[in-house]
Structure formats: C-alpha cells, structure tokens
Amino acid sequence: MFTDKIDAKDFPKMSDEYKDLVTRVLAIQADCEIGGPHLYVDKLLPGAPDATKRLVVARTAAEEVDHFRKVMDVAAGIGLDLTYLLRRSNQERAVDAFRSEITTWEDYAVFGFLIDRIGRYQMEEFEGCTYAPLDAICPGILSEELGHIENGRQFTAELANGTQDERHRVQEAVDRWYPKGLDMFGHSGSWRAERYMQWGLKRRPNETAREHYIAEVNPLIEELGLQVPDPEANRKFF
What we know:
single chain, Ferritin
C-alpha cells in the first residue's frame, strides 16, 4: 500500500490513477458538504420549533458551508474548481440522500442523528491519508460533525419521548433515512474502494465501514425505544 505523504506541489507528479481518485473524492465530499444545507435551510431555518433550535439549524448550516469551503480550497490547490457545486440543484447531487428536501423537524433531527454520522465516518477515512492537504482539514471538520450528530441524537430523543404522534413521525423518519444511510457507503466489493485503500486515501472497504456503522447505530436507535428498520428494505446498493 502507498504510504508517502503528497503535498499539492507534488500532486502533478503522481500517477493518473492517484490524481483521478483524489479529484473524485474531493468533488463528492464537497458536493455532500454543501448538499446538506441545501436540503433543509429553506424550510427549517424559519420552521424549527423554537429560537434555540433555529440557532442550531443556522449554526449547523454555517459550519457545513465552511466545510465545503475547506474542501473547495484543497481542490483549488490542484487546479480543480468546485464552485459549480454551489449552483447545482438538489436533484443533481452525487449522493441520493441529498437529492430531496427536508421539510419537517423530525426529518431534520434524524438526518443529523443518522446521516451526519456517516459524514463522520467518511472524514475518518481521510484521517492520516496520503494526500496531506485533505488530511489537514479533517480534525476541524470532524470536531464540528460530532456536534451535529449529538444535536441530531438529542432532537430525535426528544421526539421519541414525546407524544404518540411525535413518536410515530420520528419512527417514520428513521425508516426513511436508515436505508439511505446504508446506501451512502456504496457497493460492497467496490473495485474503486480497493484502489482508494491501495493508494492510502481510505482505510476500509465499503462493506466494512457499513458494518461498523450498523454496529454503532442500531443500539442507539433501540436505546431511544425506536425500531431498527430492515437493513435490506428500500436499498439500492449492497
């Protein structure tokens, strides 16, 4: 496995495969970072239940936009302009989970609880990776993602402990987002994932990361008194 640390100035000297993989991962990561706020800001910034929760929505969106800016800056270091992602519609996003709109508080809560957790998994893949500029932005982004995840968990718990209607609606949100989350890890046995690992850009195969996520998140769902959805239902990638 490749283990050298590559700076932006050394990037042009690398193989075409390495350059293609770095370019690809930066574009997808940036698309996901900016895709999150584009899902929920329109409806949930004015629609969150109270002033404190509206502040959380605003702060989370601001941090996600800043994550996009950081990834975009890394991409700019290799001559890759990702500003077009700011104008991309939700339906054009790279990952299915970002191709809709979040209009309810329960969906916002569960998105933070389940989907932002996958954002953490992805950034953990890049920690210590061979492309030094990408590795360098991981700690700050990861720290903020942990906050987003905890906010989502708390908001989901409030709904799960609320009225019968709130509990029903948050369970439906879990049922919607859980399969989308599992699909975000991609195909098991992916040849591209193996190449990422070979070049030291990721640490785990897709299926292993998915298994780790399931082992972490299923007990957390159950702790809230909610039902874990069928892991094979409503899935696109296995």
